[in-house]
Amino acid sequence: MWFLRRRRRRRLLADPIPAIWRRTLQEHMVHYRMLGPAQRKKLEDKARIFVAETDWEGCGGLDLDERKRILIAANACLLVLENDATLFEAVTSVIVYPAGVVIPESHVGNGIVAGETPILGQARFNGPIILSWSDSIHASQRIGTRNVVLHEFAHALDMLNGTVNGTPPMRKGLHDVWVETCQS
After folding, report:
1. pLDDT by residue (tens digit) across 99-130?
2. What fold does the segment set 17-162 form as a domain?
3. Quick one: which of 17, 37, 73, 174 could link to 50 by a disulfide (CB 3.0–4.6 Å)?
């Protein structure tokens, strides 16, 4: 129920962000350092909510501590920083491996599944986001590199309308602007 979620979120944000979380963002997230104070606060709040409302799982021996969770969440929340309509509610969990992982599924065609596929990340419809920690931290610290967190969470936004077509759900009137921007 939306009112319970809103109340739970207000309680969560009543306390200040833990100092170690803010220090982690300052030290390891280049985009955080580029934001002004109001946007930093907004990003911190969204990331704190996302950390609290999402199931997190470290795999392959990775200790998925609070610093890793807040850094991944803050990178993801950059995509919805000025969008209050969603906070990745369709993402059931975030699964993080120390590095890239090989998954035992590769769709060849006609429903045939064979082989293994190495991945750095993956987004699934109404399911988990899978990430490589080494690639997540690397991209968080640099501009101009591929950011696996932004990439996979962009897929999660795209999937909100039930298809994967490069166009996330948006308010009426923005679709033409979106298409024009993407084609320029």
Report:
1. 988 877 666 666 666 677 788 999 988 889 99
2. Cyclin A; domain 1 (1.10.472)
3. 73
